[in-house]
User: Which sequence fits this backbone?
């Protein structure tokens, strides 16, 4: 559960936004078809507004979709996930070209776009839905995730140990349409500036050589 002041503020923001949304905005986004040669990866690193933007800026990434995974409720709504009763995390599903960017590089970007030592929270966002979680689809992906965690822990980059959950992928539910591309559409909002943007900037700095050209100029 978020701390009371932030929860009230964000709740008011959410409801004020929701009240102005069309039925199409509140409808669930449609999953894109996987193109020939494409691969798919799924990560949760706190609020999906930041993680979706971070992943979408990488070379070889065709689409990054905000959604929910890791829980036990079918087709959850944003309100249900925020209630912390579904056990889902806010996640990003990445559709990418492995001939341009590897799964290992996506994992590197994932770990540079949030603090993986924060258990069930990210910065001011508190709750299981904001946990650090990475889903693998093959034994090779699981090994890459475990190796990266071991490497970062050994580097002593953080005071604490990484608490990222490494779990097999089961199902991804796309979030509502108005969450898709939220970072780009609302760059002037306080939450984006104070919480989301620092995560994206950290990823840009760490993964500069892997950014699409338009983001290398920022």
Assistant:
């Amino acid at each position: 559960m978020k701390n009371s002041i932030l929860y009230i503020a964000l709740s008011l923001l959410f409801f004020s936004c929701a009240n102005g949304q069309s039925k199409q905005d509140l409808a669930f986004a449609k999953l894109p078809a996987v193109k020939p040669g494409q691969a798919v990866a799924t990560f949760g690193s706190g609020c999906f507004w930041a993680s979706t933007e971070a992943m979408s800026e990488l070379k070889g990434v065709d689409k990054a979709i905000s959604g929910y995974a890791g829980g036990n409720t079918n087709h959850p709504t944003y309100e249900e996930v925020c209630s912390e009763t579904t056990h889902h995390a806010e996640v990003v599903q990445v559709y990418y070209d492995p001939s341009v960017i590897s799964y290992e590089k996506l994992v590197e970007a994932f770990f540079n776009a949030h603090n993986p030592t924060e258990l069930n929270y990210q910065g001011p966002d508190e709750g299981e839905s904001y946990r650090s979680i990475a889903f693998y689809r093959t034994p090779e992906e699981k090994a890459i995730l475990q190796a990266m965690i071991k490497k970062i822990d050994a580097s002593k980059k953080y005071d604490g140990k990484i608490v990222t959950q490494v779990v097999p992928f089961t199902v991804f539910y796309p979030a509502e349409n108005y969450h898709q591309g939220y970072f780009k559409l609302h760059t002037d909002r306080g939450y984006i500036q104070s919480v989301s943007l620092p995560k994206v900037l950290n990823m840009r700095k760490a993964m500069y050589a892997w950014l699409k050209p338009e983001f290398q100029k920022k």
In short: The chain has a mean pLDDT of 92. The CA atoms of residues 65 and 151 lie 28 Å apart. The chain has one domain: 37-216.
